[in-house]
Amino acid sequence: MLLPLGLFFEMPAFPQKSAPTEKGVLEGYVRDDNGHAVKGLKLVLNQGEFQTPGRTEVIPIITPQVVGAVVVDHPDSYEVHVVGGHHVKTDTSGHYRFTVPPGRYTFGIGIGPDELRKFAPKYIEPQDVSVTVEPKKTTAYDYILRLRVKAK
């Protein structure tokens, strides 16, 4: 005898929707230790990163006579993968603002070629910090950069 599954399991009449995640805000100002705004600085917020060993490149080759690929292995290198990455730049007053899902994040400066050229000669690179963003709340965090040589 076959019985419908509905007799054994409670089945909802309509599909259930998951509750939307209420985002939170992390915002503040980036200033040097003399109190001056640091504008145009790339800031990053992520939930961690991991590395995978080795890297493989596939280079396609397409000619009228041949279609193929060259595979190059780089066993001594590694790739860095960022989890939940976000980035913004500070405005002219040094202000930044992230609107993100709640959670624990690592917050710091995004050191790329532009940042190295513009900011490394002037500031000591700060350590990343851990921050928690809560749902529907604003977390304030002011980031202070130390100057390499203090103004007199």
Describe this protein's structure.
The chain is 5% helix and 50% strand. It has one helix and eleven strands, in the order βββββββαββββ. The termini are far apart.
Strand-helix topology:
Layout: E1 24-32, E2 42-46, E3 49-62, E4 67-82, E5 86-89, E6 95-100, E7 103-109, H1 113-119, E8 123-124, E9 129-133, E10 138-140, E11 143-147
Parallel strand pairs: 1-10, 1-11
Antiparallel strand pairs: 1-6, 2-5, 2-7, 3-4, 7-9, 8-11
Helix content: under 10%
Summing up helix and strand content along with how strands pair, one would put the structural category as mainly beta
Under the CATH scheme, the architecture of the largest domain is Sandwich
The total count of strands amounts to 11
How many domains, as an integer? 2
- C-alpha Rg, in Å? 24 Å
What's the short version?
The protein is mostly beta strands. It has one helix at residues 113-119; strands at residues 24-32, 42-46, 49-62, 67-82, 86-89, 95-100, 103-109, 123-124, 129-133, 138-140, 143-147.
Key phrases:
152 residues; mainly beta; Immunoglobulin-like; 50% strand; extended
